[in-house]
């Protein structure tokens, strides 16, 4: 009787670690490795005690229960409570206006580290510092214009 309880306990611990690995811990962690060790231990123990038939039956029962628990966990309402429901509403930066040319002078609105915002004339555009960090409220000169961003350097350079 104790032997069946030990096998069951090993499989239950393996199942708990597998659920933890699949739903809560990103990547391959120690929980996933330990889960495989516990599954293997339970099946090996069943093989030692009950032979090949016992190990095959244990393997099949463990696989069916594991699949059922994972499917049940995915369909449960409790999983919805911890799931992320955020919508992504960001957009790609807009095109650089045609009247912005190489050599134009502007001022940084935000720190360019290396990306940020600059104002050139009446236009606020996404900018990238060429080689350095540029603080806000710094005069800058456009050295290259790309479709969605302008490349700038400090004005005094």
From TrEMBL:
<feature type="transmembrane region" description="Helical">
    <location>
        <begin position="44"/>
        <end position="73"/>
    </location>
</feature>
<feature type="domain" description="NfeD-like C-terminal">
    <location>
        <begin position="100"/>
        <end position="152"/>
    </location>
</feature>
<keyword id="KW-1133">Transmembrane helix</keyword>
<keyword id="KW-0812">Transmembrane</keyword>
<dbReference type="InterPro" id="IPR052165">
    <property type="entry name" value="Membrane_assoc_protease"/>
</dbReference>
<dbReference type="Pfam" id="PF01957">
    <property type="entry name" value="NfeD"/>
</dbReference>
<dbReference type="GO" id="GO:0005886">
    <property type="term" value="C:plasma membrane"/>
</dbReference>
<keyword id="KW-0472">Membrane</keyword>
<dbReference type="InterPro" id="IPR002810">
    <property type="entry name" value="NfeD-like_C"/>
</dbReference>
<protein>
    <recommendedName>
        <fullName>NfeD-like C-terminal domain-containing protein</fullName>
    </recommendedName>
</protein>
<dbReference type="InterPro" id="IPR012340">
    <property type="entry name" value="NA-bd_OB-fold"/>
</dbReference>
<feature type="transmembrane region" description="Helical">
    <location>
        <begin position="7"/>
        <end position="38"/>
    </location>
</feature>
